[in-house]
Amino acid sequence: MEQKHITIIGAGIVGISIALELQNQGYKARVIDRSGVANEASAGSAGAFAFADIVPLATPGIMMKAPKWLLDPLGPLSVPPAYALKITPWMLRFWRASWRDRYHAALTAQSSLNGFSLTALERQINNVDGEPLMQRDGQLQLYEGEQEFRASLKLWDVRREFGIAFEHLKSPTEIAEIQPGLDSRFTHAAFTPDWMNTIDPRSWAEHLAKVFVTRGGEIDHVEVLALEQSGDGINLMTPNGPLHTPKVIVAAGAWSHHLARTLGDHIPLETERGYNTTLPAGAFDLRTQLTFGGHGFVASRINGGVRIGGAVELGGLNLPPNFKRAEILLEKAAQFLPDLKIDHGKQWMGFRPSMPDSLPVIGTSKRASNVIYAFGHGHLGLTQSAGTAELVAELISGKTTAVSVAPFAPTRF
Ligand SMILES: Cc1cc2nc3c(=O)[nH]c(=O)nc-3n(C[C@H](O)[C@H](O)[C@H](O)COP(=O)(O)OP(=O)(O)OC[C@H]3O[C@@H](n4cnc5c(N)ncnc54)[C@H](O)[C@@H]3O)c2cc1C
Fold first, then answer.
1. Looking at residue 235, which CATH number applies to its domain?
2. What is the distance of C-alpha 354 from the center of its chain?
């Protein structure tokens, strides 16, 4: 097969965004994916550009709260017994990431990447005429009663410190001005106006892929089994034989660490499996994204319908899905939005690629200087996709990156 200048493994939102950005900068880019464009995590996300979500999951004190959540096997956080031993090393790193020093460093890094990604997204939207696929309706974070709201204020102070715009709403009447039809248990809320959603994350990735191909890019369907250094390049081992490429970017989502390991890089990537149900158009008059933080799920508008989803299941890549989780979220949503029509929903489970400190991996392989890693974005892969793409292009061209990539180093663990 013809040699191309840069090969990207993975046609999820991260890989496609990188390919398009490299193409914009004059590189000849080829994408390789075993299953096609946005067929994994990037297909079924909530569609949010969640720039206000700067707080890592590993917050100080989280290990005190986690056992309580884990007691409910269908609660917002779960570890299937069959995976409990395997996830232990990752959990220990997660615990270490929650110590104050590391938490503050991760918060600062996440905030800088989210801020940069917001500006990069606007450039990307411009570049691909993507505005029709965007919804600029903000997000409502909902609280059941004064006590839950008060408990959240510390984190809102942190967000204020990092320049996140928000408004607090302190009565159901104020909330109803933004989103009518909520159950009266929601007495308080925070509205983040700069939050955006795409009308459908799969359509957004497909749109980017279409632009990439129209401008001469190539997307091939083949599985990469391993990476091998070969002369001044890299051989991608596939069932059809090796493909030689001078430079490779690994953006293979929750499977990326398997490829990194074939080069000798050990990166503690795990998956946080998430679930949702997408209801058809007319299910509810949703005017903004709703986040039920205390219950670990959101409601977002997708193609005029409603997607109810979230949950974190630390269950690895191979266990079968447990769609009871999606059902539980839908049942709760029906209580919170009494007019929600819950028929004809389509269930889905996806693999968030997650690092213990909630930060992605963006940087050069320790073993091979012509391999760049770009994965592990956890809950924020869509949010940080355009920013990651620009940073990877800067790394490839040897420029100083717009934000420091040191906190995202593949070698940080
Ligand atoms: C329920 C849920 C809701 C979410 N909501 C949001 C949200 O609102 N906002 C947000 O920012 N993020 C959200 N996320 C997270 C987001 O979906 C992910 O972070 C993001 O999609 C990851 O993108 P990716 O391109 O890295 O991986 P993926 O989309 O998983 O793509 C990886 C690609 O690599 C390919 N691949 C893997 N291994 C190989 C191989 N060996 N050879 C060839 N190809 C390979 C796969 O086929 C796949 O196409 C959500 C996730 C879930 C589960």
1. 3.50.50.60
2. 9
